[in-house]
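Bump. Still looking for Dihydrofolate synthase/folylpolyglutamate synthase structure tokens.
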Amino acid sequence: MSFTYQQALEFLNTLQSKGIRPGLKNIALALARFGNPQFQFPAVHIGGTNGKGSTAAITANILKTAGYKVGLFTSPHLHSVRERIQINSQHISQADFASMVKEIKDGLSIDLTYFEFLTLMAFFYFAQNKVDIGVIEVGLGGRLDATNLLLPKVTIVTNVHLDHQHWLGRSLKSIALEKGGIIKYNTPFITGVKQKDLISLLQKICKLKNASFYQIGADIRYRRGKHGFSYFGLKRHLSHLKLGLKGEYQIKNATLALGAIEVLEKVGFTVKDKHIQKGLKSVSWPGRFEVITSSPKVILDVAHNPAGAMALKKNLSSYNKNLVLILGIMQDKNIKKIMKILAPLAQIVIVTSPQTPRAAKAELLSNIAKNYCSHIKIIPSVSQAITTALSIATSNDLVLVTGSLYTVAEAREALRLRCLGK
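Sorry for the wait, here they are.
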């Protein structure tokens, strides 16, 4: 009996009710049932509070440019679940997606969550398609994340900030321990963590596991210039590099990716300077300080926690424009702190709620925003918030949509439909 893409989506959506269930027992049993596909390709494993998806995208694009067949597994997705599983920048096809969901569903009696099922599916798909390497983003935390049964060639933790405290612990130290759980024995580790006490903690884990420790600012460095940036690595020194992603924090993510490339070269991967240059310049990662239009300038950014909001604020400092800010934030996030960082930058704040039960009510956001901006508008739907912002903004203004991936996803779709309607 045929199994359609729509049926596959409907089955996967039934798994959403299982929620988040940290632990490796069930995913380990499921992977074993399908021949442990995670051991059938080398991998780069990337965790961290912010920037892990961008770092994964940059790493994968450089390796693809160098001629390798590269699997990329990321989460969450903006518009389609197929975005999460890619080979050489191509999303898994609807037909392959449906057939793999059916094969795994029919061959498995183990109870998996939505994310565990997709992790198994990605690893199985990469193994079946004989990728040269997989670039794998951690879903949540690290130690008990479903992706943590890999045996990677290099691991990365981009940074550690407060987020998902319900699952990872209330302190930065506890969160760092969870994220440091991806460090493997005898496997090089790279980090962009800045806090001295957390660096010391991660160094201790590496020492216990005989894992080489490399840190931005010490072992690998970058310097931003007027026309790009320079990279000072373990052996490489590259100048006048241009990155397809905007924002200084993306240069830091690119530096982590370049560190990983240098580690991979030690185990047989060949990547020339020209591949790095082209891979950096051509990379794209939607929703991360993404400029959609120029008049007025519309920017989308998925900053969903205080650290992400601070990075976004820093990027905005180079824009001398009146700001119309559209904010939609999840109710389980640190709304007050995100608002305190971003709302004072705006002349007008439009609060809204994307279509998910996790979203904070626009009225709640409005009550908090009033402390930081005198001009607040409550617009319940994201698409209508976009229409309102564009009707208010002049051609010289900046419209920024942020606060959540859900908000950005709905805004991107609304802007796409708006462009099609013109």
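Residues 248-265 form the longest helix (18 residues).

Edit: fixed formatting.
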